[in-house]
Structures are given as C-alpha cells and as structure tokens.
Write a structure and sequence with these properties.
The chain is an alpha/beta fold. It contains 29 helices and 26 strands. Adenosine-5'-triphosphate binds next to helix 16 and helix 24. Keywords: ATP-binding, CBS domain, DNA-binding, Nucleotide-binding, Transcription, Transcription regulation.
C-alpha cells in the first residue's frame, strides 16, 4: 500500500505574518490566499502562533481598529505538526484541534505548510478512492467467488468469479435476498454472533461449494457479511476419481501379487513401473530397488524394449534365464494406438509341467464335450427335416430319402466331413420316425473316456465293481429304449466294443456289466462319422460286419464347399438366427463380404460358417455386415483353396491333387452359376444376387470358364 506522506495533505503555498503586522494586512492576505489560518513567525522565521479568520471577525465585531497588531489577536498555543508525523497522530490532531488547521513545521520550527480540514478531507477522499480501486482489483481478480450481503441478508455485491460460478450477474441480483440465489446457506451465526465460519460445504443443484463467511463490522455493529466461495464440484469429482484409481491400483497389485506367474510392467521408456511379488522373488530383488529402473537391470537380454518400440507382441517364447528354459510373453500396452508400456510375463512352471497341463486340459475338453452332450440330451427341442436349410440339389435329395428311411426301423449310417450337419440330420430322422415317441440318446464314441465306454453303453448291475454306484446304472442302450441311439464318431469305437455292439444289433438284446440278465431292446441305431469307414474296414480298424449292419441305409452329406448355393442361404439363415438371439438388426451383408464368404473353402463346413456369422454379428456396427468384421483368415486368398478337411479321406485325396480339385470345383461353380441364371429366367443380375456374389465377379467367372472351355454347353 502507498505510504502516507504529509506533503500530500498539506497546503504548501501560504504566507506567514509577523506579530507587528496589522489586521488589515492579514485580512488582505487571507482574502488573496483563501487560507483562513496564517502562521505567525518571529524574526528568525520560527513559528510563534497563528492568526485565524475567526479572531479577525471577532476583532471587527468588537469595533477594533484595522491597525490592531497581529500580536494582540494571535493564538500562541498554535497546533504545530512536525513533518514526520504519522497518519494516526495526524488524524487525532485534526479531530481535536480548536483552530481547524495545523501548521507543519520543520526541525527548526519553521512553518513548511498548513493542513486545513478541507485539505485533509480532500486527501482522505483521494486516499479512499485509491483504496477502493485497489480493493476492487483484488476483489474482481480473485479466483474465488465473493458476495457481500447486508445485515438483512440483502445482496450488496458480487465479483466476476462469483458471477461466473453462479451464472448470475451483478445487475440481476440487485435487491435480491441471499435465499433467492444461495438458498439454504445459513449465515445467521455470522450475523448474530459476529463469528466467522470457515470451510462450510454448501450444495447447490449439481454443484458443491466451499465457503468462508466473515462478518462486516462498523463501530462494533455487524452491518453484513462477506461470503467467499469456491466451486469444488470438479475437485470432489477428481477426488473420487483419484480414489477409484487408487483402489484399482491396489486391486491390480493384489491380483498381480497373487498370480502364480511373474509379472513385470514397464512404461513407454522401458522403465519398470510395477512388479509382482513372484517376479521380485524370482529375480531376488526388492521391489523398491527395482522400480523406476531400466528393464535391462532386471532382465538382461529380454525383448521388452523391442516390444515397447515396435508394439508387436511376443507370445509364449522360450527364454533361458540362468540356464533354465521358461516360457515368456511380452505384450505391448496400447492407448489410442500408441505403445505406452509393456507387460513381461514369465511362466514359472517347468515345461514338462506345461505338457502335463496341456494333456489334462485335453482330457478335460473331452469330458466337457461328453457332459455337454449329456446336457443336450435333456433338451427335447424337436428338429424336423424342414429345419435343415439347403438349396443344394444333392442334399435336398438326401432329405427326401431320409424322410422315407425314417419311417422304417433300419440302422442308418451318416457320413460327411465335420460340421456338415450329420447330427442335425440324425435328429431330424429320429423326429420323423416312429421312434420319435422315445428318446434320442447320443453317444459320442470319441469323447467317452475308454474305461467308461462299456459301462456307459450297457450299464451295470448293483455292486458290479468297486466304485460303482450302489444301485447300479442304466446304460445308454437301456435309456434309448423305444427311441433312437445316435452313435457319433463311430469310427473311433474300439474293436472290442464294436464286437459287443454287433452282438446287440444282431440279437436285439444285451446284458448289463456284472449281470447275467438279458435285456431285450427296441431301438433304432443311427451312426455317424467323418472318417472313411470303408478305408478303416480295409485297414482292419473297423469290423466289416458291423459296417454292413450300420450301413443299411447310408447318407453322405456333401461338404459346404460343394454347396455354394448353401453358403448364401445359410449365411442369411444364421444372420436371422443370431439377430434374434442377440436382439440386433443386421439387415444385409455387403457384396464384398458375400464374395469373401463364397470364395472360402469352408473346411469346418456349416459349423465354421455359423461361427463366422455369430462372431461377425457380435462385432457389426450399424445394420450391414461388412467384410471388415470377417475374420482375417477368410481374406487370405491362397489359403482358401488349400485348406481341406483332414477327415474325409476321399476329399483328402483330391486335396492332394490340386489340379483335379480345382477343375472339379470350377465345374461345380459353373454349374451353379448356370442353374441360377436358369432359375431367374436368364436375369444375370438376379442370378448373381441369388448366389450372393457381385455381377462383375459372376461375369468375370463366366468369361474365364468360357476361355478355358470348362463351361458346359458354352
Ligand atoms: N443345413 C443346415 N441347416 C442349418 N443348420 C445347420 C445345417 N447344417 C449344419 N448346421 C448347424 O451347424 C452346426 C454343426 O452341425 P452338426 O453338429 O450337425 O455337424 P456334424 O456333421 O455332426 O459335425 P461333427 O462331425 O463335428 O459332429 C450345428 O449347429 C448345426 O445346427
């Protein structure tokens, strides 16, 4: 603040008078200078008194002569003020002096200036407006909001920050009561007791404020209060975010510390930012000594830095640490496509343990398939032949024949690659048959653990062997009584069980394990396999007599790649099915996506197509299924023709002869294109649509076939 200076207050140009001068001279000087109190000095110019206007007027009123001397009227106990007086003392003097002015003297008591009440007031006004301006700047540039209200809680003023926070301006608040704009803010204690309130939390709508409320006093009276407030909504939000980040960090650390494997996390500069207990123990380091150190100080020749640089993950690679092989993975941490760190994971289990685990997993997988089948058996959804979707003439014929065959009781053998719909056909045959009143019991000959196969089939008598259930167990043959027994993967059945099954089929009866009671059966057997049973017979792995017993009626379902009509039809069928399941509305498939689906070889047949559509619907945005959401392997051009299911040996043979395969495939394709053109009355655009391919692609194919001369009738 500006320092008080007496020169700013005093009048400098004045005239001193001597004791011998007359009243007339004094009156003339007063009139000229407009100063009503003049210093009286002696011959040494020292102040000896003051002659005032009021004493002059008094002399005139008494009829005194104008020649009366100053010494007769002057006040000699004049208030003189030293120039180095401070502000408070000066205020005192001005307040108490009788004369109404003060003479400022220097150290030699010589007058230097005069302070009159009016000059003092002027300087006070100046000072006040200066202070006001200063206050206003502080108050307006404050980050916090500030509101003043009077003792009746009426609005007095608000600063700019306050206006912004409350979204109200000064003029709109004029005349308002505090309860109008900050309802519920209690300031009574401040106004009544004169006590300040600090750190009051106040909620207003969606906002949180922190307030300090201070009383304003004048002469011991509370005349209102000042409310300083800060919007802490963001702060509260940030605090809660910080709290959740801390919680997340603790959870992450807990999970990491409890993980069996060693985990090291690095930042974008490959400095260690996190390490779990297992890894710290493994590297025999203390967490604190390794945090924020370059990763190489912990793992000498790891590729962590490389992963951080390239963003390319390294998965399940063998790395020797202290001469021991470990499986490690290094995965980049990405944020908005930028690598911001990496996770190094070391699998502590020894590799032979991993192998053992993989075997166990495989076993568990088989068991899972087995139990899944058992659960499926419980479902009594009826599958009719109409549920089998096909536009393929060969498959349509199979459906017709299956309907006729279903009416009888002959055993049926269904062959075809994996995923072509063998089980679906078996279910439909069962449902269309007189055995439909009974159950359809499935036995996956490849999934039942070898040691359980016999008891699963024939069941066992009570107490048949140690560990057996007390009351014995019904075998599948018994459960299937009056219905159908679906023997899936029959090609995987052991030779010993094959003989037992043959006996059952011949005698239509069997004996449960550990029992000598013969049970008569009335079942229809439907067997299925994706293996070439004839070849297995040739190799002595499958009994000839059983083969003929089962193959009384035989159906071979063609692979999907030979049913390109079906690709389009099934695609739309699954689209509709998964639209319903997922509650989405993917209306169509882009032409590019259709072409990709058409070009693919479908080694996994309908199951693969169903999985592709299910997955695509999961990823689809909008209402069109586009090629970008199809799995990348479908778009790799060379793979589609090479891929062939290893299961059908006939197909395997053709797969080994690419030329033959290609020409056979071409033959199929051209036949389908021509059939489509015929079905659409020669309309090629419609034919392409029916096939789910673009017109240009169809023309291109026709032209190519015509050139190669492979087009029948062209
Ligand atoms: N023509 C079809 N119409 C509708 N769905 C089909 C068709 N063919 C197969 N599917 C579906 O494809 C999946 C695989 O079919 P399924 O299990 O019958 O094949 P599979 O030949 O028995 O296979 P695997 O030999 O591997 O047991 C099932 O979900 C089935 O419903």
């Amino acid at each position: 603040m500006k320092k008080f200076k007496i020169e700013d207050v005093m009048v400098r140009s004045f005239t001193s008078v001597s004791p011998g001068q007359s009243l007339k001279t004094v009156a003339e000087i007063m009139h000229k200078t407009k100063i009503e109190d003049l210093p009286v000095t002696n011959d040494d110019d020292k102040l000896i008194g003051v002659i005032t206007k009021s004493s002059l007027l008094w002399a005139v009123s008494q009829g005194m002569s104008y020649d009366t001397k100053v010494r007769d009227l002057m006040v000699d106990d004049a208030t003189n003020v030293y120039e180095c007086i401070d502000y408070e003392n000066l205020v005192d003097i001005v307040r108490t002096t009788k004369i109404g002015s003060g003479i400022i003297t220097d150290a030699d008591e010589k007058p230097k200036g005069i302070i009159t009440k009016s000059s003092f007031m002027r300087s006070m006004f100046k000072k006040e407006s200066y202070l006001n301006a200063q206050l206003n700047v502080i108050y307006q540039t404050m980050y916090n909001g500030l509101i003043t209200v009077d003792s009746k809680k009426r609005f007095l003023g608000i600063n700019r920050a306050g206006e912004k926070i409350l979204h109200k301006d000064n003029s709109s608040l004029k005349g308002a009561l505090l309860s109008d704009f900050l309802p519920g803010l209690d300031i009574d204690r401040v106004l009544i007791l004169g006590k300040s309130l600090v750190g009051i939390e106040y909620f207003h709508g969606d906002f949180n404020f922190l307030c300090n409320i201070t009383p304003m006093e004048e002469n011991g009276q509370i005349i209102g209060c000042v409310i300083v407030f800060q919007d802490i909504t963001d702060l509260v939000q940030q605090m809660s975010e910080l709290e959740s980040v801390t919680k997340l960090y603790r959870t992450l650390k807990l999970i990491m510390d409890n993980a069996y494997d060693g985990i090291v996390v690095v930042d974008d500069k490959s400095y260690i930012s996190l390490i779990n207990d297992s890894a710290a123990q493994f590297f025999r380091k203390n967490e604190q000594e390794i945090l924020n150190r370059p990763v190489e100080e912990l793992i000498a020749d790891s590729k962590v830095r490389e992963v951080v640089k390239t963003g390319v993950p390294i998965k399940n690679k063998l790395q020797f640490i202290d001469g021991v092989p470990y499986v490690v993975s290094i995965l980049p941490i990405l944020r908005k496509n930028r690598v911001i760190g990496a996770v190094f994971k070391i699998l502590f289990r020894h590799l032979d343990e991993v192998k053992e685990l993989a075997e166990k997993l495989d076993q568990a997988g088989k068991q899972l398939a087995y139990y899944k089948d058992r659960v499926k058996e419980k479902k009594d959804d009826k599958i009719m032949l109409d549920h089998i979707v096909t536009a393929d003439s060969a498959f349509k014929k199979i459906k017709e024949e299956a309907e006729i065959a279903a009416r009888g009781a002959s055993n049926i053998l269904i062959t075809g690659e994996s995923g072509t719909g063998k089980e679906l056909l078996a279910q439909a045959i069962h449902c269309a048959s007189p055995f439909a009143k009974g159950p359809l019991v499935k036995v996956n000959c490849a999934a039942i653990p070898e040691n359980l196969l016999e008891s699963e089939f024939f069941g066992y008598a009570p107490g048949a062997f140690t560990g057996a259930e007390k009351n014995g167990k019904q075998g599948k043959l018994m459960v299937a009584q009056g219905g159908s027994l679906f023997l899936d993967e029959i090609g995987d059945m052991s030779l010993s069980l094959q003989s037992k099954l043959l006996r059952v089929l011949q005698e239509r009866s069997f004996e449960p394990v550990g029992s000598n009671k013969t049970v008569k059966i009335n079942i229809r057997v439907i067997a299925a396999t994706n293996q070439n049973l004839e070849k297995l017979v040739e190799d002595g792995k499958f009994r000839t007599d059983l083969f003929y017993r089962l193959n009384v009626v035989g159906f071979h379902i063609p692979p999907l790649r030979h049913r390109s009509y079906d690709v389009n039809l099934l695609t739309h069928f699954f689209l509709e099915k998964y639209n319903k399941i997922f509650g989405v509305h993917i209306k169509k498939i882009s032409t590019e996506a259709c072409e990709i689906l058409h070009r693919h070889n479908w080694p996994g047949n309908v199951r693969e197509l169903e999985n592709v559509i299910e997955r695509a619907i999961n990823f689809a945005k909008g209402d069109v299924l586009d090629n970008d959401i199809l799995p990348p392997y479908l778009k790799e051009p060379n793979k589609t023709f090479i891929k062939s299911s290893p299961v059908d040996s006939l197909q395997n043979k053709t797969a080994l002869l690419p030329k033959k395969l290609v020409s056979k495939r071409k033959q199929y394709e051209i036949e389908e294109i021509l059939a489509a053109i015929q079905n659409t009355g020669g309309n090629k655009a419609k034919a392409a649509k029916l096939l789910g391919i673009s017109r240009s692609w169809m023309y291109e194919k026709l032209a190519r076939f015509a050139m190669e001369g492979s087009c029948p009738g062209q």
